[in-house]
Amino acid sequence: MQLKMFVLSGAALTLWLAPLTVLDKKVGWHKSMQGLSLCAAAVCAVQAGNIACELAQDGEIEEIKTRAITADVIDEISVSTYVSQQQRQQEAEQILNPREHLERALALTYGDDDELEQERSKQLAKPDAERSQNDDAERKELIHQLRARGYGKAKIILEIWGSSKGGSEKYQVAEAEFRRLVGDF
Amino acid sequence: MRAAYLANYFVAGCAASSLLGWIASTHSMAQKAIAFLAAATFIVWGLCWLLDFSVSGWLKISVPNLQAFLLAGLAMALIGAGVFLCS
Fold first, then answer.
1. What's the CA gap between B40 and B48, in Å, rounded?
2. pTM for the complete prediction?
3. Of A141, A151, B21, B79, whose CB has the highest number of CB atoms within 10 Å?
4. Closest-CA residue in chain A for B19?
């Protein structure tokens, strides 16, 4: 297409200038040839102009396509970046939440559902046991301090468990707990 | 490519102008007709140049584009006629 345009452009220039300079106006057939060549030059130039116009429009369309593709690629990259950032954030949140992290780790470690449930309950029970051990240690420490101050059993139970001496079930439970802790000493 | 198509239309205008000169040289009546056509065209050209804002609004093109179009037309006519007369 481009070659055709260049050939037509060259032909137009040649047909316009060559007959006017080479041929003699006074000779009849020379003058006729000049007229014909000028007509042909105008037609060739218009044809070449039309082809060049089409090529220019095609070039503009290609440029628009390239821009659209580039914009699509940039959009896709930014979306994937955003998604990966969200995933990282979620992973970080899960790591910071130990209970969920534990459940997830257990789910990944154990395939069987029953085993999974058992192990999960065991694993989840561990923090409770640790917490109760900590409470016991604190209470033991308190009992130790109160004894050092000269407090008796009833007063220690009142101070730590908040139940006064009597036949109430709460007091009996507290007394049993006190004995258990004191027995551990 | 845009420059190529503008250049080709410019060459077409020059060739058309030379063709008009050739037609004028064929017969005295044709010469008078072409002279009248050239005079009318020049008057219209001058009016367009003077009333560029109105004409640009009527043709729905910008004033610089109209001025460029008028100057290109004048250059085509002068070059085409000059080439024909000097050959």
1. 12
2. 0.56
3. B21
4. A38
The answer to whether the beta carbons of residues B1 and A55 sit under 8 Å apart is: yes
Please tell me the distance from the alpha carbon of residue B1 to that of residue A152, in angstroms, as a whole number.
Answer: 107
Task: Indicate yes or no: CB of A42 within 8 angstroms of CB of B83.
Answer: no
Contact assignment for B22 to A34 by CB distance below 8 Å: yes
Do residue B12 and residue A52 have CB atoms under 8 angstroms apart?
Answer: no
Spell out which chain A residues touch chain B, with contact meaning CB-CB distance below 8 angstroms.
5, 8-9, 12-13, 15-17, 20-21, 25, 31, 34-35, 38-39, 41-42, 45-46, 48-53, 55-56, 59
ipTM of the complex in this document: 0.81
How many Å apart are CA B87 and CA A38, to the nearest integer?
13
Using the beta-carbon criterion (under 8 Å), do B8 and A39 form an inter-chain contact?
Answer: no
Instruction: Spell out the residues 6+ positions from residue A19 whose beta carbon is closer than 8 angstroms to its own.
Output: A30, A33, A34, A37, A38
Please indicate whether, in this complex, the C-beta atoms of A39 and B9 are within 8 angstroms of each other.
Answer: no
Tokens of A170: 């709460």
What sign has the CA pseudo-torsion B26, B29, B32, B35? negative
CB A119 within 8 A of CB A157: no
Measured between beta carbons, which residues in chain A are less than 8 angstroms from residue B82? none
Return the domain boundaries, chain A.
Answer: 2-96, 98-184
Put simply, the answer to whether B83 touches A17 (Cβ < 8 Å) is yes
Residue A111, phi then psi, degrees to nearest 5? -90, -40
